[in-house]
Amino acid sequence: MVLLTEIQYNPPISYFWHVIRNESIQIEMHENYIKQSYRNRCHVLTAQGVQPLSIPVLRGNSKDKTLITDIEIDYSQKWYNVHWRTIQAAYGRAPYFEFYSDYIREVYQRQPKYLFQLNVDLLRLYLKLLKLNKPLSFTEVYQNEAPENVLDLRNKVHPKIYPDNLHVKPYTQVFGKQFVPELSIIDLLFTQGPASVSYLQ
User: Fold this and answer.
1) What pLDDT is recorded for position 97?
2) Residues contacting residue 65 through CB under 8 Å, at least 6 positions apart
3) pTM above threshold 0.70
4) Three-state helix/strand/coil letters over the chain
């Protein structure tokens, strides 16, 4: 099947659980931006517990509906430095941090103007690092109802919705005695490396 989903920032593990089980990915690019979603935030595990990382964005009038592809990143706020310092502090001692971190950092350093582009670049990178050869396409129009051969996951992977179909298997994390599920894919990559795909399967 085709997986239809919005683009997300450093998506959570459940996102890739679905990716690996479908033939291809179609990204919704005709939706309006939705606040307080994974579109501009992710969760990582630090010594202080789960830490949300949120990208500040520029919007004209907050009452206006803005297309996701028109959302600009606010680089006047030094969010990149905060995010990268937090990621380094959280995963600098992880077994595979040095193996993957330069690739991820290079995407950030491009400083794309639009949130959509940053997220697409990161998604392409994670698919490559996970060796998931999944065709990636984009919607041409917005459809409320997806066709029969499409799994519509739009707005289903959300910070406030715990995935009921995620088979959570604990893996060794850098911090904490209790396993924390549904973190960003970088938590899995930095701690499990090439074994990440086996975990997702």
Assistant:
1) 98
2) 32, 33
3) yes
4) CEEEECCCCCCEHHHHHHHCCCCEEEECCCCECCCCCCCCEEEEEECCEEEEEECCEECCCCCCCCEHHHCEECCCCCHHHHHHHHHHHHHCCCCCHHHHHHHHHHHHHCCCCEHHHHHHHHHHHHHHHCCCCCCEEECCCCCCCCCCCEEECCCCCECCECCCCCCCCCCCCCCCCCCCCCCEHHHHHHHHHHHHHHHHC
- CA dist 38 and 35 (Å) reads 9
Are 54 and 40 within 8 A, CB to CB? yes
Nearest Cα neighbor of 56 from 80, 32, 34 is 80
Q: What is the pLDDT of residues 188-199, one digit of tens each?
A: 999 999 999 999
pLDDT of 115 higher than 80: yes
- Which residues fall within 8 angstroms of residue 14, CB to CB, at 6 or more apart? 157, 163, 165, 166, 182
Residues 6+ apart with CB under 8 A from 11: 38, 42, 123, 126, 157, 184, 185
User: Distance of alpha carbon 118 from its chain centroid, rounded?
Assistant: 11
**Tokens of residue 173, six digits:** 């994390």
Contacts 24+ apart (CB under 8 A), 96-103: 96/189, 96/190, 96/191, 96/192, 96/193, 97/190, 99/193, 100/129, 100/186, 100/189, 100/190, 100/193, 101/190, 103/129
